[in-house]
Amino acid sequence: MFAEKILRLIAGLLVGIWVARYLGPEQFGVFSYVVAFVAIFGGIAKLGLDGIVVRELVREPSKRNIYLGTSFWLKFVGALITLGVVVFATFFTSNDHTTNFYIFIIASGIVFQSFEVIDFYFQSRVLSKFVSLCRMSQLLISSLLKIYFVLTGAGLFWFVVVSLVDQATLAVSLYIAYRYQKLGSFYRHFDLLTAKKLLTDSWPLIFSGLAIMIYVRIDQIMIKEMLGEREVGLYSAAVRLSEVWYFIPVVITSSLFPAIVSAKKVSEGLYRQRLQRLCTLMTWLAIAVALPVTFLADSVIVLLYGHQYREAGGVLAIHIWGAVFVFLGVASGVFFTAENWTKKSLCRTGSGAVSNVLFNLALIPRYGISGGAAATVLSQFVANFLYDFFDNSTRAILIIKIKALFPIHYVWRKRG
């Protein structure tokens, strides 16, 4: 998994940045806006099933086909509904017809997310290498296409098409990997009672996923409406460098999730101990990334994107600190899933979404794209840390987060 993510990071630096330089801030701003617009609604299609299905596959591996088949068809129907919602939402924007057409192309790829259920199976069996190989195949095809379009002087339309090809390629690769395991055809199975059970647990996570994408992507939408497409391009260039590190908590947490769930069955002490180690590791990995990036932001932006993106340096120096709370949020998400606190997870991410919109309204008009970066960091702090102060039932994970941020307690324990 790390190998795949490192390759993705390298491709992002070499190919992704090359594409951004080729398109320029304005066209890159249009592309980033379209991707962000679809991403906000894309969380609905996931139906909040990701962690829920993995948890159930760990608990009842004998019901593999029932869980995979049922979740597959639920996600497929959810994707069709989401596609309709995206098309409907475009009528309330100030976009031109070309931009809305780009939105529809990328949104069509949401249908292929149904095959993510295969990833859930591999996660439950701690066999992520198969998924990583699939993603490597997707990355290779995507990178080659982008390089070809840059070299041939292609227009923005073709880079939008690549986003659709990405999703289709991953779906096909996952299906081939699953068939390679000779496990049968899961898509032939659907159980109504299982579907009701999964949706009962996951429905708050549907809104939670929507809330997450709002407070992660709404800044680009609001910057486009308030400042323009060029500013979206500058902002997105910095955000891409900042978010390229977010694979770290996802990889580690996905790998350790089954072990942490299993530890809860053994003893509460072992469960809390593993959570503490995970959160402490995530926090200091994020700080180790944020510190050097802060001081090198301007130089890194000019070196990678060129002088036309120079204004993005200040955005990167601010936005990178959101990684601390993102890493903590991903790690603590294990706690909410293991405890089956889907409604609390919704409240937590909802607070982040609302605060991000409010912070953006207050800071973007006054501070421009740097205000948008600050709004994102503040909203991540609200959702992934401050929220736990106001909910008595989440005090346990709050204490774990405080210990992760201030690990001096380990020194005191050792001396004692």
Task: Give a verbal description of the structure.
The protein has one domain. It starts with a helix and ends with a helix. The protein has 17 helices and no strands. The protein is mainly alpha-helical.
List descriptors.
mainly alpha; globular; single chain; about 85% helix; about 0% strand; about 425 residues
What is the strand and helix layout of this fold?
Elements: H1 2-45, H2 50-59, H3 64-90, H4 97-108, H5 116-124, H6 128-151, H7 156-180, H8 192-226, H9 229-243, H10 247-266, H11 268-305, H12 312-319, H13 322-338, H14 342-367, H15 369-384, H16 395-405, H17 408-415
Outline:
It is built from 17 helices and no strands.
Largest sheet properties: none
In the predicted model, the low-confidence regions spanning at least 5 consecutive residues are 410-416
Q: What general outline do the C-alpha atoms trace?
A: globular
Tell me the fraction of residues in β-strands, as a range: under 5%
Rg over alpha carbons = 21 Å
* Total count of helical runs of at least 4 residues: 17
Total number of strands = 0
Structural class: mainly alpha
